[in-house]
Write a structure and sequence with these properties.
By secondary structure, the chain is mostly beta strands. It is built from 1 helix and 8 strands. A hairpin with a 2-residue loop joins strand 1 and strand 2. This is BppU N-terminal domain-containing protein. It comes from Phascolarctobacterium succinatutens CAG:287.
Length: about 110
Amino acid sequence: MFSVQDNNIAMIRGDSGIFKIDVTDVAGNAVALDDNDVLTFTLRRATRSPTIVLQKTITDGMLTIHPADTEKMEFGMYAYDVELKRINGFVDTIIPPHKFQLLEEVTY
């Protein structure tokens, strides 16, 4: 199970998750990304936690979470964001901190 609702993510530990990240301007228009621009998904136990639990580079606008990415994580609530770093040095957090809930599994 993998679901995204209002940018809040819930998934069962050890499952796969894939979702598309669309970059838009304030008017909702699609923003073209350069090949050298980098989108990064970062997950921490809490926004102020110094420890990164999971970090993924988003390629082709798709965030892919593999079973191995979460299989050793503790169940519970985490926080994530998605940041865009452009080649010219411009940085924008395109998805500000949101909830990431890692749910229990029975089959593992």
